Every structure is written in structure tokens, then in C-alpha cells.
Amino acid sequence: MKTVSPAKFLFVTAPRGTQTYVTEGHTIYSQSKVPEKRESRSRPSIGIVNVKTSGFNQDGAIVITFQRIMMVSQRGQAPVIPHAAMK
Q1: Which of 3, 67, 68, 72 has the most CB atoms less than 10 A away?
Q2: Is the pLDDT assigned to residue 51 strictly greater than 50?
């Protein structure tokens, strides 16, 4: 993804070669989808989650897309955090 930041503008090269500007005052919305999830092969209490996120401006034009892969605790498998560590 290419970005150029002249003055108060952020230029983002969006998918399929379209170009969209984001400026101060624009409203940005996001939508995330989980196309894939699986259990970790080496850590049975951990899941691997693939998340694809798109950001849209107030006109519905895509201004950014990205993908991330996260390791998350499976339901009921979260680590116990001692009460003293939470202060």
C-alpha cells in the first residue's frame, strides 16, 4: 500500500488501482471478516484466526484494506491473570 501525506490529506492506493483521499472531517467505517480459523498444531489451547478488514469513507469508497493473522485463546482456555497484576 502506498501512502503520501501532503498537508492534511492522506492518499491511499486502494484495490484495483482506484485512488481515494481521506481528509480531516471524513467519517471512516470498517468491516472485518474471518475467512479462516483453525486450531494451532503446537498449542492445543490456542486458535489461529485470519481476519480481513476494509475501511470505507462516508461515501462507501474503500480507503484501506488489510489482513492480519492472530493467535487467540480458545473459549474457556484463557490464561488466568492474578488479581494483583490487574491493578
Answers
A1: 72
A2: yes
